[in-house]
Amino acid sequence: MVDAKTTPRVGLKSFPQTLPLQDHEVVLTFDDGPAATTPKVLEALANECVLATFFLVGKPASSQAALVRRIVAEGHTVGHHTYTHKHLNQLSYQDALAEIDRGIAADEKALHGEATDVPSTPFFRFPYFESTPALLDDLQKRGIVVFGADLWASDWLPMTPEQELKLITDRLKVTGRGIILFHDPHHHTANMMPAFLKWLRENNYRVVHVVPANPEPTVAGTPTVVQ
Fold this sequence. Notes:
Layout: E1 9-10, E2 25-31, H1 38-47, E3 53-56, H2 58-63, H3 65-73, E4 77-80, H4 93-112, E5 123-124, H5 133-141, E6 145-147, E7 151-152, H6 161-175, E8 178-183, H7 187-202, E9 206-207, E10 209-212, E11 223-226
Parallel strand pairs: 1-6, 2-3, 2-8, 2-9, 3-4, 5-6, 7-8
Antiparallel strand pairs: 10-11
Helix pairs in contact: 1-7, 3-4, 6-7
């Protein structure tokens, strides 16, 4: 269980603590969607009966509301990733807050038809992991859990699906567990995902799905980790 009041930030690449995962447990997260390749990722996840968390960018979410709703309808969690994926640490505090809140509002409108800066799922990830103390404090006060990652596939770099598969499986063999960062808009990630999920199954990994305990948008949620 992760309580936003006591564990407001998780992911060892950015913070001192992470989710209380056991050996051979992973959390799958995808950033920067929705995109044309997101359905291919959803299909791969569905074929293996596993669930993930998608940190959506508000601007593309605004124009692809049906896809955003499909993500949730298939059981996945939607977190938030700003409106246009700006470097928040290069903006003023007020401009950075506006970028965060506009992204949340766009995601919520795509999901529920009404824009609000109070997220129904209180999960957020900073673009480029570029947080500031003031923004972290603001999100903590609002009961929003900030996700970093424990390992990533470096899929922002040019590579083949085969190269990405080797990279992420080699890293996972070292860590044995963790929150994994992917980007569903990248074709090589979408094409690699079926093989990666098969590798997880064949190597006895369990995919843990993270959800908020209380999804009501007017209450700060307390996330829990569930199988």
